[in-house]
Amino acid sequence: MNYDEVMKMDKVEFGDMPPQAFLLGLLSAFDNRYQAAADAFFKEITWKQFFAIICINLCKEAPTINELSDVMGSSHQNVKQILLRLEKKGFVSTVVDDRDKRKQRIVVTDAARAFLQKNDNNGEQSRYMIGRIFDGISEKNLKTTIQTIMKMERNLSKI
């Protein structure tokens, strides 16, 4: 595969890069570009802060910082910094665990829920942004991509 043609980039020489290395680089570059676009899209909070709120809501019970770090795939320190900023904005708070008083659990606030209602996948602007990103990609290709990345994730956890 000629990656230079695929990427239509004349400032980069990919040479004989193996497809695995190319894919990892592509995912990293996409992540950076998506984060910049999403940061510009969400005026009140960053993409990583928005992602943290989504991950909190995915948990069956309010998570601890360690649990949230696992879900987000990020370090305890990074998640703590994200949560501190969200707390200052009134989007999350911490509560003492009912069963284990040593644990602090993170909960989203009414302000976060209102923000989500306005900006999540149900919001017209979010649907437009997500729709543009996935324009022209079939459901079959999307499922294959999801399966591939999930397999990569499982393999990564074994390293």
- Please work out how many helical segments DSSP would assign: 8
**CATH class placement of the largest domain:** Mainly Alpha
Q: Based on CA inertia axes, which overall geometry fits?
A: globular
Structural class: mainly alpha
Uncertain runs are none
Helix content percent band: 55-70%
> What letter string, H or E per element, gives the SSE order?
HHHHHEEHHH
Q: How many structural units, i.e. domains?
A: 2
CATH architecture heading of the largest domain: Orthogonal Bundle
Write down how many β-strands occur, each being a DSSP E stretch of 2 or more residues.
Answer: 2
Strand content: 5-15%
Q: In angstroms, what separates the terminal alpha carbons?
A: 28 Å
User: The CATH topology of the largest domain, please?
Assistant: Arc Repressor Mutant, subunit A
Protein traits:
globular; two-stranded antiparallel ribbon; Arc Repressor Mutant, subunit A; 2 strands; 159 residues; 6% strand; 2 domains; mainly alpha
Task: Describe what this molecule looks like in 3D.
- The chain has 159 residues and is mainly alpha-helical.
- The chain folds into two domains: 41 residues, no CATH class; 84 residues, Arc Repressor Mutant, subunit A (Orthogonal Bundle).
- It is built from eight helices and two strands.
- It has a two-stranded antiparallel sheet.
- A hairpin with a 7-residue loop joins strand 1 and strand 2.
- Helix 4 crosses helix 5.
